[in-house]
Amino acid sequence: MGSEAAPLNYIPILIFIVIAFAFGAVQILLGRIVRPSRPYRAKLAPYESGSPLFSDARVQFPIRYYIIAMLFVIFDIEIVFMFPWAVAFKKLGLVGLVEMVVFIAILIVGFWYAWKKGALEWD
């Protein structure tokens, strides 16, 4: 095979990508040309409903919210790792058991640390 064979194989893919982008651009431009544009005061108001804003949309969340969310993600990932481990438990043997115990111990230490720092206090 020569060095010219590989780039020629990609020409259909390049043509497909160009057609896809062109189709999307034509649809957007056609929609802009065809659709009616009749703005009025209520339509131009926030949320297009005309209801006035009563407060700022940017609200500060307590840092505890983010820590609890991160703990949820961590423990969710732990469960994702435990399913394949449980399926292959007999094949992994003692080494697999020790690895999972170490993995869970690391997560428990992190949970304990978050608990002691006060991030997990429920009022």
From TrEMBL:
Keywords: Cell membrane, Membrane, NAD, Oxidoreductase, Quinone, Translocase, Transmembrane, Transmembrane helix, Transport, Ubiquinone
Membrane topology designation: Multi-pass membrane protein
GO cellular component, one term: NADH dehydrogenase complex
Subcellular location, record wording: Cell membrane; Membrane
Reaction equations catalysed: a quinone + NADH + 5 H(+)(in) = a quinol + NAD(+) + 4 H(+)(out)
Record's keyword annotation contains Transit peptide: no
EC numbers: 7.1.1.-
GO MF annotations in UniProt: NADH dehydrogenase (quinone) (non-electrogenic) activity; NADH dehydrogenase (ubiquinone) activity; quinone binding
A Pfam family reported for this protein in Swiss-Prot or TrEMBL: Oxidored_q4
Quaternary organization: NDH-1 is composed of 14 different subunits. Subunits NuoA, H, J, K, L, M, N constitute the membrane sector of the complex.
Sequence similarity: Belongs to the complex I subunit 3 family.
Function: NDH-1 shuttles electrons from NADH, via FMN and iron-sulfur (Fe-S) centers, to quinones in the respiratory chain. The immediate electron acceptor for the enzyme in this species is believed to be ubiquinone. Couples the redox reaction to proton translocation (for every two electrons transferred, four hydrogen ions are translocated across the cytoplasmic membrane), and thus conserves the redox energy in a proton gradient.
Name listed for the protein in its UniProt record: NADH-quinone oxidoreductase subunit A
Organism expressing this protein natively: Nitrospira defluvii
Taxonomic lineage from the root: Bacteria, Pseudomonadati, Nitrospirota, Nitrospiria, Nitrospirales
Gene behind this protein: nuoA
